[in-house]
Design goal:
The complex is a heterodimer of chains A (140) and B (91). Chain A has 140 residues and is an alpha/beta fold. Chain A is built from three helices and nine strands. In chain A, strand 2 and strand 3 form a beta hairpin. The longest helix of chain A is centred in the N-terminal third of the chain and has 14 residues. Helix content of chain B is 18%, strand content 30%. Chain B is α+β, with helices and mostly antiparallel strands and 91 residues long. The chains are: A alpha/beta (140), B alpha+beta (91). At the A-B interface, strand 4, helix 2, strand 5 and helix 3 of A face strand 5, strand 6, strand 7 and strand 8 of B. Strand 4 of chain A pairs antiparallel with strand 8 of chain B, so a sheet runs across the interface.
Chain lengths: 140, 91
């Protein structure tokens, strides 16, 4: 379960809409499945079907999460024209290159579909050892 | 000389669960070789034909080696090296 406050959820959706038609991304810091801090991040290789976090920003945000006493409980990105479900590229990049070892086994991958921009759809997943499991995302 | 190396979760099987190891190396290329000697399998995970694999970020202290001198980035005692998987995807 991933719980996120309404205002935080809205900021994440707004960030994805602002990045449209390209993909947008960010991180979620929190504890025990509850989001405490949303990081709206830049897409270093923006495109309508790709995102990649900027490496130094990624490092800074991961450090800020640790320094805040939080865990990186989630990673989010948008699918401007696709379903809120992990793509093959999402799955491949969730693993260490050339393996099926999950890079961030404790993180929930939140995907926001903007197929209908008036009704964005957000769903959460874990991606481990070839399996995709849905984790409910609840706005509180 | 002692350099701290932070090992990401997917590679901790190679370091017997250790999240941080120490070693001495004069640059990143040598660091990869030394890690391989101490923790076999590390070199193949980190590099391909002597180049750090795509989707793997290596930082010296807080700087990405791509903006320093890549595999030739010089290391000194007290440096902390972080090996961090890139976050990317999409459709």
């Amino acid at each position: 379960m991933l719980n996120i406050k309404k205002a935080d959820f809205q900021s994440l959706i707004d960030h994805c809409l602002a990045g449209y038609p390209n993909e947008s991304c960010g991180m979620l810091g929190g504890k025990d499945g509850r989001v405490e801090k949303v990081y709206l991040m830049q897409n270093a290789k923006p495109g309508p079907d790709y995102y990649e976090m900027e490496p130094e920003e990624q490092f800074r945000v991961m450090k800020d999460i640790r320094d805040s006493g939080l865990d990186m409980i989630g990673l989010f990105h948008s699918h401007p024209a696709g379903q809120a479900y992990p793509s093959n590229v999402d799955v491949r990049n969730a693993y260490w290159p050339g393996t099926e070892l999950p890079n961030y086994p404790d993180a929930i991958y939140v995907i926001i579909s903007l197929m209908d921009r008036s009704k964005p759809v957000a769903r959460g997943f874990t991606i481990e050892e070839g399996k995709i499991n849905e984790i409910p995302v609840t706005v509180i | 000389m002692a350099i701290k190396v932070r090992i990401p979760t997917p590679l901790q099987k190679l370091t017997n669960g250790k999240a941080e190891v120490e070693c001495g190396a004069k640059n990143i290329a040598e660091l990869v070789d030394i890690l391989e000697k101490d923790y076999p399998g590390m070199k193949e995970r980190l590099s391909d034909n002597g180049k750090i694999r795509r989707f793997i970020n290596i930082y010296v202290n807080e700087e990405d080696i791509r903006f320093l001198n890549k595999e030739e980035t010089t290391l000194k005692e007290g440096d902390t090296i972080s090996i961090v998987p890139a976050i990317a995807g999409g459709r």
